[in-house]
Design a protein that fits this description.
heterodimer, A: about 325 residues, mainly alpha, ABC transporter involved in vitamin B12 uptake, BtuC, two-stranded antiparallel ribbon, about 70% helix, about 0% strand, B: about 525 residues, alpha/beta, Rossmann fold, 3 domains, six-stranded mixed beta sheet, 17 helices, 24 strands, about 25% strand, globular
Amino acid sequence: MNNLSTVIINGMSFALPLFIMAIGGIYSERSGVTNLALEGLQGFGAFTGALAAYVIGMHLEADSMVPTYFAMLFAILGGMLFSLLHAVLCNYFKADMVISGVVINILAMAMTAFLTKTINKNIFGAASDKFVLGVMRRFDIPLISRIPVLGAFFTNLYPFEIIIAILAFAAWYLLYKTPFGLHLRAAGDNPAAVDAAGINVIRIRYLAVMMSGALSGLAGICFAYSISAKFSSDIYVGYGYLAIAALIFGGWKIIPTLGACLIFGFARSAGYQIVQQLGLPSSYSDLVMVLPYVLTLVLLVFLAHNSQAPRALGEAYDKSKR
Amino acid sequence: MDSEYIVEMRNITKRFPGIVANSDVTIRIKKGEIYALLGENGAGKSTLMSILFGMYEPDEGEILIRGKREKINSPSRATELNIGMVHQHFKLVSNYTITENIIMGQEPRGRFLGFLPCIDIKRADREIADLSRKYNLEVTPTDIISDINVSTRQRVEILKMLYRDAEILIFDEPTAVLTPQEIDALLDIISGLRDSGKTIILISHKLDEIKRIADRCAILRRGRLIAVLDVKSTDTKEMANLMVGREVSFRTEKKETGFGETVLEIDKLTIHNSDEFPVVRNVSFKIREGEILAIAGVSGNGQVEIAHAIAGLMKVHSGDIRLYGKSIRNMSIRERTEAGIAYIPEDRQEMGLVLDFNLKDNLALKRYYRDSFARKGIRNNTYLDECGRSIIDKYDVRCAASTETIVRSMSGGNQQKAIIGREIELGGVLTIFVQPTRGLDIGAIERVHKQIIEERDKGKAVLLISLELDEVMNLADTIAVIYSGEIDRIAPAKELTTREVGEYMMGVGVHDKAGEVV
């Protein structure tokens, strides 16, 4: 396998979970709810997913794929459940959305670390601060994976990449083609107009935030099954914030956001590849981890004036206001 | 249907904390008429219609639609009963097309990729185009809301009602945001809707509009129904008196005075907007003590930018602004305030007030740093309160909780009174009024006009910028007509007729600057 293929393969497997998480963020923010909680949501989703995989895996053979899929399902449910906290704080209590998001990130980190240790000790009888998951089994798509260069996009795939591609399409369709999507995007621009049309703004915002929780949770377990190969507090390295950066560069639109995620993904995998090719010590690969964030800063400089944030972003909807 | 009335509201009472908005009001509206609700700001017109549209529930009373008693507890219920409302503040999604705004909540369905349910936007576009042709409401369905002007947005709001098969159409002060030409067009549209069988309820405080198109008119004052009149057989004077509750004079009394020293001198002023386009070009004029200079012009011809430049809100590109001979061009806004410039801005909610602050703080916004208001950087609350109270009394600002009233909860007229009070009390030498009576009712307009004259009689210089030609003709000593950023004509008011000024405003005046007076 040549270098370019490696860059593509690793880049895609990082970019896609990032993308699905950014889509979650887009849902939340287009509905008007600022969502800085993506980081915490993906971590919490990874936790519930990993726990589910552990529990179910106890009763199955070691190489069964079943726990993996259950892990994804429970990651989605866990993320969704945890996001309800943000939804309730923002919509019902009309709390400051930025503060709520930050608090949820901190809470997720502390809570999952505590729960992981406690559960490991009391249920699995092991003193450990992680759930070891291993890396998901990869596969090639027959025939098209043989195409030169482009075939790399279909080689050595994680199953979750396919799932994400399908879900991303579904999310795009829901947001831009259906009445629900029309109402959701309107709620982030002028919620009073949505209300006047007889549509429940608060309900839409709850659903949008839950969507962000579900998709972030999925992203979290994908990271846990690929880059990390485990669930531990390592999961909180800032992918959530990177997803937020991606959706902002994407102008809160799904297709341009995919572009931003791919840039981040390829920058990261290309960086690793360069470090390896040059035979640099492993400490340099830590430096590469910084690359997407540096890129974020650079992009910020160029895109600073090009912000198309939803007009009502961050405003709790209050019917009675004039 | 055994009743001749399509809408009956019987004995409606609605209380809000501190005020009774509607007290035992009964109105009956016939199918196919234009029924006007006339009253001053805060008379309870909007509340009454909000009740009919299901936004508030009445504390007492009942509503009958087509002779049947109905409980209208939400706008959706009102829509089901074929009631539609155009609100004063439009409820439109700015980054959506006209079609998307209209169909929201009732989207025509189609198939995406042949099997997935989706919105059939093409069909919707066609439907909206048909609807707009049918009712003569010209719009391009695929235009984005943020790209279209106010009167088109209003047409979108009307189409929204028609798309939902509304039979009873409520218009809440629809002309407040429009230019005179647009008002004419809208009134024609409303008459047209009546002629096609719709029932119209028109909330307004503009007598001439009601006289022009309404069939009957109910007058509300301080929450009570005063009279229901047949519009044709009543003159506007009588309606005005009933509405205000006292004799109203339409002409403002103004005594002749001599002018003093030159206060403000604008010298070859050019202003560029953010796109580097010269919105004001080479404008010069002077205002003397005891003089009202009015800039007349159609909206968007650069008059507001001149006011902004004097107040310090916009940068001067070239030319100079002098106050008593001293250039203020590079002064900060506070320095200008201290030099004696008072500014009553066009947009009272965006620029004039901090809506979520209370009245006390709003009334001190321009002076809070002065010695008596703050000692060594610490607010003197007692003094702030006293000052607030004195303005509230002197300028008759009606508010529920005195100086503690949150400004957002006040009516537009009272917000304007508060701003005018605040600015006049600064005790400056030049007062700038931009559209001071926009959206105000006749009683309030009369009061504002008196205050403007008083300022002049005190020997201050007054710059009045107004789109209302009547206002300009009534008040000004000197009139400058602006057209696309240039002053076309400047002359003493008595040398100009309304017609002449109107022509210059449209840019069709004879370009004869011989009569220019400086």
